[in-house]
């Protein structure tokens, strides 16, 4: 059974930092493209950052470039999202996602990040 368990959300002041973690189990972690998505209140879910499975290709949404960093530790089967210089508009539920060949697609339960101004 595949599980993605996020942690690290909470209340952060504007300009502050926070790190999210997502521990994956039940899958061959190194085969999967790992991503962070977020869903702000009343809005659609959007891609924040993605890291590829083999070459480590990384991409970011324009809104977080230069502020957020995605990384992974294959030995710990964990993907991280380091978030710096947080803004109120970063407030959202953040979800971890694992995808393999557009066939296998798994989601975590989400973790709330609230940025106060």
Structural features, described:
The chain is mainly β. The chain is built from no helices and eleven strands. The chain has strands at 3-7, 10-13, 18-25, 33-39, 46-51, 58-60, 68-73, 78-83, 92-100, 104-107, 111-116. Strand 7 and strand 8 (78-83) form a beta hairpin. The protein is globular, with a radius of gyration of 13 Å. The model has no long low-confidence stretch (mean pLDDT 96).
Beta-strand segment tally: 11
Measured as a percent range, the helix fraction is under 10%
| Separation, N- and C-terminal Cα atoms | 40 Å
β content, as a range?
over 45%
Identify the overall geometry: globular
Radius of gyration: 13 Å
* Topology order in helix (H) and strand (E) letters: EEEEEEEEEEE
Count of discrete alpha- or pi-helical segments spanning 4 or more residues: 0
The main β sheet shows up as: 7 strands, mixed
What structural category arises from helix and sheet content?
mainly beta
Uncertain residue ranges:
none
Q: What is the residue-mean pLDDT, rounded to a whole number?
A: 96
